[in-house]
Write a structure and sequence with these properties.
- By secondary structure, this protein is α+β, with helices and mostly antiparallel strands.
- The chain has 2 helices and 4 strands; from the N terminus they run H-E-E-E-E-H.
- The strands form 2 sheets. It has a two-stranded antiparallel ribbon with strand order 1-2. Strands 3-4 form a two-stranded antiparallel ribbon.
- The longest helix is centred in the N-terminal third of the chain and has 22 residues.
- The radius of gyration is 21 Å and the shape is elongated.
- The mean pLDDT is 78.
Length: 78
């Protein structure tokens, strides 16, 4: 392999690592407490048309409990 090709391959590999690092460093807010967390570490709950992100199981459980209360109150109102 020629020296020029080795430099090009190395550059492409480094750009890929930089792009991956930028993606890994992306931060999002927890849906419940608004704490900023790395997107890769978030816990996800998917709905019909959305994805919610949570910083930990406690926030996810809190959200689930609130959703359950909403559904129960909606069925009682009818």
């Amino acid at each position: 392999m020629g020296f020029g090709i080795a430099i090009i391959i190395c550059k492409i590999m480094m750009e890929g690592k930089t792009m991956k690092k930028e993606k890994d460093d992306e931060k999002i807010a927890c849906h419940v407490c608004q704490k900023m967390i790395p997107k890769a570490a978030a816990i996800h709950a998917e709905g019909k048309e959305y994805v919610l992100h949570f910083c930990n199981i406690d926030c996810l459980d809190y959200w689930k409990a609130q959703e359950k209360k909403k559904k129960e109150s909606n069925t009682q109102d009818k």
